[in-house]
C-alpha cells in the first residue's frame, strides 16, 4: 500500500511539472492569437529531450552521483553528459522522430547548442532543487517519527520503572505490619488503615505524569507516620517541611524512594541516632535531604538486594528532569545521606 501511494505521488508530481513546462513553452512558441496544431506539435518535440534528461537526472544523477560523490563531480557529469544528450536528443526529436510520428509536417530545430545548454541548465536546476527539497522534508518527517517513537519508548520505560518501584514499597510496608501482627500489637489495625490510604494514592497516581506537590507531601506524611509506628523510639524520626507546596506539580513517587531507603536501612536504636527528613520548597524548587545512621546488621544481610529502587528512581529523574535536578549521595560506613533538588518550573 505504501509503495503504491509513493508511486502515485511521484507520477502526479511529474505530470504536474511537465504540464506546467508544456503550458509555458506552448505560450512562448505560439506566434498568433490562437494556438494551432503546429504549435502543439512543436512544443511537444521541444520538451521530449528535456524530459529524458530531467528524468535521468532525478532517478540516476541525484541518487547515484550527487549523494554518493560530491557536487563538483555531479556538476561536471551533468555538464558533459547532459549537454551531449540534450543536443543529440534535440536533433533526433526534430529530425528522425518528427518524420516518423508526424510525416505530414516538416520541423526544424532553431536553437544552437549553447542555447540548449542554457535551457537544459534551467530544467536541471529546477528539478534538482525540487528533489532536494523533497528529500529535506522527508528527512524532517523521519526525524519527527523517530522522536515520536523515542518519546513513546521513554514513556513505556518510565511506566516499567514505576511498576518496579511500587511493589517494592508494598513489600516493605506489609513486612512492617506483619511484624506488628506477630507481636499482636494494637498498632496493626491502624497501620492497615494507613497503608490502605497510601496504596490508594499509589494506585490513583502511579500512571500520571504530574501530580500536585501538595498531595505528594501529604502522601509522604502518611508514609512517615506509618513507619514511625513500628519503631520503639518514633520521636527519633524528624520530619520537617519548609515552604508552601501550592501551585506546584511533580512527577509522582519520586521523593518517597529516598525516604523509604532511610527507614529500610536506618537505625534509631542508639541514643544519638536519628532519621532526619527535611523538605524545603521554594518558588520553583524542591529540596529533599534524608539522613540516617546505618543499621549495620541489616546492611550486611540485605546488601545483595538493596539499591534497586534507588537505581530506578535515578533513571526516572534522568528521563523526566534531565539537567533540572541535582542528586548527591553520601555513603559512609555508619552513615547515609541523600540530597535531591528538583527544578519544578
How large is the radius of gyration?
Answer: 38 Å
Domain tally: 2
Beta-strand percent range: 5-15%
The CATH topology of the largest domain corresponds to Heat Shock Protein 90
The backbone outline, from C-alpha atoms, is rod-shaped
Top CATH class of the largest domain:
Alpha Beta
- From the N-terminal CA to the C-terminal CA, the straight-line distance is 45 Å
Care to count the β-strands?
7
Instruction: State the helicity in percent bands.
Output: 55-70%
- Name given to the CATH homologous superfamily of the largest domain: Histidine kinase-like ATPase, C-terminal domain
Output the number of helix runs.
9
- Structural class call reads alpha+beta
CATH architecture of the largest domain: 2-Layer Sandwich
Can you describe this structure?
It contains nine helices and seven strands. Residues about 300-305 have low confidence and may be disordered. The chain is of the alpha+beta class. Strands 2-4-5-7-6 form a five-stranded mixed beta sheet, covered by helices on one side. Strands 1-3 form a two-stranded antiparallel ribbon. The protein has two domains: about 1-110, no CATH class; about 155-345, Heat Shock Protein 90, CATH 3.30.565.10. The longest helix has about 70 residues, at about 115-180. The chain is rod-shaped and about 115 Å long. It has helices spanning about 1-30, 35-65, 70-100, 115-180, 185-205, 215-230, 255-265, 295-300, 310-320, and strands at about 210, 235-240, 250, 275-280, 285-295, 325-330, 335-345. The protein is about 65% helix and about 10% strand.
